[in-house]
Amino acid sequence: MITALAIGCLGALVFEPQELPIELSPPDSLTGQVSANFRLGDIDGNGEPDLVFPDRVFFQEGGRFQTDRPVPLYTVGDRAWIDIWGNRFYFRTRDRLAVVGWREGAWHVLREQSLHWPSPGPEDSNGTVFDRFVHDLDRDGEPEIVLPGVDGLHLYRWNSKGYEEAGSPIPFPPLRVASAPARNLWPPETRRIAFPMREMTCRYVLEENRATIVFREKLGERQSRYHVLRYILDPHNRFQSDLRPSDEWITEPMPNEMQPCRLGSDEQPAFAGGDWELSEASSLPVPVFETRVSLDMGKTWQSFRSVSFRPQCLFVDADGDGSADLITETIGLLEGGIRESVSRFLSARRIEHTVAVRLQRNRLFAPQPDWRIRIAIELDTPPVRNSEFFARYQAGELIDLTGDFDGDGRRDLLVQDRPGRLAVHPSGPSGFAAEAVAFIAVESNARFAVYDANGDGRSDIAVFPAKAEPGQGSPAQVWFCRKGTP
Amino acid sequence: MTSAILLCLAALFDVKTLPLATPDVHIFLARADRDTQADVFVLKKSAVTILFSQDGKTRSLVLPENATATDVADLDNDGQTELVGVCGDEIVAIPLEEGGAPRNLFTLPTQLANSSSEPYPFVLAVERDGKTLLALPCEETFELRTPAGSLVSAYPLGENAPLRASYGTPFRAWTVDPPRLSGRDGLEGGVSRTFAFEPHLPPELSDSPLHARTFRRATPIQLREAGQLEPDAWPWFSLTRDGRGDMRVLYAMAGPDMGDTLIRIQGYSGKNVAGPERRYPGQLIVLDDGPPDFNHDGYADLLLWSAPDPGISVGRITKLATAGAWQTNLSAHLFSPEKGRYEPVAASRISCSAPIAWFLDPEEAGPLRHCALRDFDGDGRTDLACATAPNRFSVWTFSAGGFDATPAYEHVFSEAIIEMAFKADLAGTGKTSLGIRTEHMLHVLIAPVK
């Protein structure tokens, strides 16, 4: 077992590795967040979050997970969906709820009862899987259970004896014809009676005593508008809500590729997305990626174009102020004239890549970048060879802006600047450090992801074997970022 | 049409144009007058414009603001069609006269009320026992009513329908983790419901497209992978133009640069097994039109495209990039019923050019855009039409000697082509007419009746 390995040290960034069976998704393009095959929770109450999988727990002691002493997770003898609240596990089976805790080295059933759920239980799933259905709406320490059904969103509250359904379900929008089902009217032999499919798709969000329903209304082939319904839940009246929303907003029409997301520090949804177009300003058509964003329900839009590159994340909270900032990246391959571009494409092994951050202030993104860094990426073969490393570069996988390694609240830049190396450029008030302060040697073409895997407030780096397929169980090398000097 | 440059080398088409104010329009064909020829309808929100294909005249109508499903039908069997539409709970008819005013036929709540923010073409009128009826899906029943609103028959729909159409899981709920809309401490999820049923209808009404025969096609990526699979998994089309027999042409891409096409014939020898694999140079062009029949013998033929290799050097690629376009070679291979296979030697070859960007789009199967493989001159042989530049459209006719080296027809539009809105034999003469949309215009290339 490697104990502590200082890979690079400047500004007190030290990384220590540990092999863990974790899997992480690529970051969401609009929020920069990743999903994981594990949860963190301080199960044993020692102040250090433990690593919880659907079948076992690795307790954390002294900053390391005890992988040699896995503790099997409690089983309810049935297929179950599990959610974690604090140090309690909520097992939802087909018709029961069990709340389980860890005490004095053993699992204990704290509560158990029969419950009728509004939607099919986990009989369709295999084994135990994580889900999210526990939420403390009134912040009284006893979380409520939230589950969607065909007729709406059902809430269950704790009444000192057990969980009971609270009030009427929060209604979902009605079914509508899925899309204008345009049909052929001529010639007569092609006329067909159609029975249009009706559908309803919506998102629901619960925050404190507010429930928000967001759904899209299609307007023709290319445009949509969103409806945002807000319901206020009364914790003193069994979370009863009016069947009519307390507030309702309808956005302006917007292109279909725009998606709702949270980019501000308040609850109002933003709408953002991006699309490619070919710039035909020169005889060589150059693909241009345009990011569009509206922070006022589609009334006004800002758009930013970058040459030939779609960042893996379009938004991250780079400066840590609670509002997402906008990222653009530019490939240096196409700078200069056509002949230089072609020459680089056929022979260059080094690409100059620019990352720019526009900070969000007063619900606007700066027209010019606030932070900008130009980095060199060493390729294994010239672009014309279209190697796996170059393909990963084009897919935006070599640049990550989601991590905060030094714990200062700002996002730092992690770049795989050559096939076998990761480099960390920390950020300061005025942007990214031009020089990397830490390097991690990795297997050539290894995939990586960034996540705070031990819950200490600093991001860690998970490195996955180059040939590993997600879900195949190949352990990741997780480089935990530590305080202090090596 | 003043800004369009017409390079009409043969009178294959009369070109008529219609300005389009917005990009979101429905363009469809229907019969608007008493002749037998189809006319062109354009729905822009509630505005209807009719372009009469015989004389090129236009007529404007306005639908009620809340109109959704819209059809064109001869409601009273007098030989003159009218617009019929669902407007909220009202079913209305509008005479196809300049400024024709809507008249309320009857009131009936249907699933089609408020189904869209704008009108769209939809089959409402059906013929039964020589009379025109209106077919309306309501909440619990599918109803056939006379234009006066009398109920003729009703069939259970909804939960009591005998047939539930499968469009995936009827109810689905999922957790959004990590959240996109909520804060760090919030709980976020998604819900999806779908609801689709079909009634049991009498045979004359039950020709549902759900049950229509479909051919297995493939995306460009699937096509590349098909060659590695067993022939059973290859995409295919019918060997005969009319689909008779169960003879299939299985195809896949092959070669180091996927520049060849593998073909196997299934069912021609009477056995339902794939015949020997044969390789043809070029990539197969497969369109919604179905396969071409260049020699009018009833058997599907092949049209393949290829492009000369520019070679990898800075000078050559720079020259190619500055040229902006590259050569595309097209070759037609005919099916030989005697040999039971496609001829290895192309019956005809032509060359055209296409913008470089069209070669580079991974979502497209080749550099040809806005393509049609139809009979444009009425001789029964399939001809080829496609864009050869963003605003240039060319047509090659196929005769006994094959394709001519130069297009039989070429039209340069004043703006880039966006889509082919329709391709149809408007007058039943065997000649295909085309509707081509540019940003602000609909260009109707009408094949003359004589």
Largest interface comes to: A-B, 75 and 75 residues
SSE-based structural type of chain A: mainly beta
Strand content of chain A: 35-45%
The fraction of residues assigned to DSSP E strands of chain B is: 35-45%
What general outline of chain B do the C-alpha atoms trace?
A: globular
Largest sheet of chain A: 6 strands, antiparallel
Radius of gyration of chain A: 25 Å
Describe this structure in words.
The complex is a heterodimer of chains A (486) and B (450). Chain A has 486 residues and is mainly beta. Chain A contains 2 helices and 42 strands. In chain A, the strands form 11 sheets. In chain A, strands 18, 19, 20, 21, 22 and 23 form a 6-stranded antiparallel sheet that branches. Chain A is globular and about 75 Å long. Residues 1-10 of chain A have low confidence and may be disordered. With 450 residues, chain B is mainly beta. Chain B is 5% helix and 42% strand. In chain B, the strands form 11 sheets. In chain B, strands 1-35-32-31-30 form a 5-stranded antiparallel sheet, with no helix packed on it. In chain B, strands 10-9-8-7-11 form a 5-stranded mixed sheet, with no helix packed on it. In chain B, a hairpin with a 7-residue loop joins strand 9 (90-95) and strand 10. The interface between A and B is large, with 75 and 75 residues.
